Amino acid sequence: MSTANPAPPQVVLDDVIDRRKVGRFHLLVLALTGSVMFLDGLDTQVIAFIAPVVAREWGLPVAALGPIFSASIVGLMIGYLALSPLANRFGQRNVVLASTAMIGVFSIASAFAADDVQLILLRLATGIGLGGAIPSTIAIVSEYAPARRRSSFVMGIYACYAFGFVVASLLSGPITRAIGWRGMFVLCGVLPLIAVIALALLLPESPSRLLRSEATIRFAQVCRRVAPEVDPGTVVLGPEGRAARAVSARSVLTELLQRRWIARTLLLWLAFIVNLGVFYAVLSWLPTIAVQSGTSAGVAAGGTALLMVGGIIAAAIIGPAMDRRGPFTVLAIVYLLGSVLLLGFALAFSAGSSAFLISAFLVGTCVAGGQMSVIALSAQLYPNLIRSTGVGWALGVGRIGGIVAPLVVGLAIGVGVSAQTVFTVMGLAMAVAGVAVVLLGRAHRRALAP
Q1: Residue 141 · residue 153 · CB < 8 Å
Q2: Going by C-beta distance under 8 Å and a sequence separation of 6 or more, which residues neighbour residue 134?
Q3: I need a surface site. Which of 98, 103, 151, 254 has the fewest CB within 10 A?
Q4: From its phi and psi, is residue 218 left (phi > 0), alpha (psi between -120 and 50) or beta?
């Protein structure tokens, strides 16, 4: 008499990941994804130092710099909105590889631009690659991070993005003078192409994508490196006890705007629009406003760099606090504190260099730190199936604020609006973002309530 073979043991993937301590595999994923974010930040900021050199060489008017600056930002928006949904069909890893390769190829091509039109188009294409890489990078890190460390992981790699800004601010000028602006573009292209090789060899696909690749999948095919002690014969299931269903890009976008998610999605978008608007307005106009208020150009540049340094340092504090206390409460506090700091920021211009630099650093902890924090929040807000699209669309829609706010501030300064008024409006805007996050937290808790 024969007996039936016993059913293989089963585990839920999220339970396995959440039980694990942070180990070498996690550090590898953080290093790989952090390098992508660093290169994105470097390429995004380096154009601010290359464009004026290009304009002088080609005899372009100052007004021609605007489209060159804006091209990659517009490309970022396109990448966020158009490429992030493709990850559900082609995989997060493949989108990261393709997007990073785009950055490399089009950065090198920018070195051979013959006029400003070609440069604008090539920077637009580079920006699309930049925007495609970030959401999928965040999604991979979020899925492999234990839930108790998810905010810290996302904040950690986004700090690498901010560090790319800092390195570009400090080194782009000297390097451009040494090898020329074309050589600088080549350097910014070669580094991502080298990164693609390392990513292709070492970066894992997101576990949810692997789970969707077939109806049931054995642990060895998903995350043996995450938990090697689990029996290779164990069947790994998705969070609902089965492999997650595959969805099209269109259905994911529809999910974001259905009744279940619409309120949370719109509140998240509002927070992104305000935070990115204030971030880019301060980053773009702080040197000009400071110099007009009597601050030296060198101190003004130092204050701008300290904005990003403040954000990087804040990430090490805010991320763990979000994991311990909850992302909504902590981010709301960050935004409201940032509102207070912005309201008093203009007063620091006339209080001496030290007061200005300290104030710039503190504003950066909340404005740049808040931007990293809201991305970490969005990674926790959405489930695996729609995470990359949810994060990508929040970043893309948020770029509306990043594009419009610097233009509005420029118009205001042009008609004689005082620095105190400009920063007062920014402070009030950050308070609005704080209220949006409070309402978002309430909406999310109601949605999760039984």
Answers
A1: yes
A2: 37, 40, 79, 80, 161, 391, 392, 395
A3: 254
A4: beta
CA atoms within 13 A on the CB side of 52: 8
List CB contacts of 96: < 8 A, sequence separation 6 or more.
33, 36, 133, 136, 137, 140, 199, 203
Residue pair 159/372 in contact (Cβ under 8 Å)? The answer is yes
A 10 A CB-CB count for 66 gives 13
Rg (the chain; Cα; Å): 23
- Please state, in angstroms and rounded to a whole number, the distance separating the CA atoms of residues 61 and 58: 9
| Distance, CA of 326 to chain centre | 20
Name the residue type at position 318. I
pLDDT for position 241: 47
Tens-place pLDDT, residues 25-71:
888 999 999 999 999 888 888 887 787 788 888 888 766 777 777 78
Q: 29, 143 in Cβ contact below 8 A? A: no
Determine contact, residues 308/165, Cβ cutoff 8 Å: yes
Report helix, strand or coil for 233: coil
Hey, which residues does 237 pair with through a beta bridge?
Answer: 12
**C-beta neighbour count of 153 within 10 angstroms:** 25
* pLDDT tens sequence across 255-285: 777 777 888 999 999 999 999 999 988 877 8
The angle that helices 24-58 and 65-78 make with each other, rounded to 10 degrees, is 150
Alpha helix (H) ranges present in 203-237? 207-211, 219-222
Q: How far is 164 from 382, CA to CA, in rounded Å?
A: 27
Which domains does the chain show, CATH number per domain?
Answer: 8-208 (1.20.1250.20), 247-450 (1.20.1250.20)
- Pairing mode, if any, of strands 10-12 and 217-218? unpaired
Ranges of the chain whose pLDDT falls below 70 = 1-15, 62-63, 211-253, 450
Distance (Å, whole) CA 88 – CA 17: 21
Pick the closest to residue 261 from 446, 434, 437, 436 (CA basis).
446
pLDDT for the residue 126: 93
Neighbour count for residue 248 (Cβ, 10 Å): 12
- pLDDT given for residue 5 in this prediction: 58
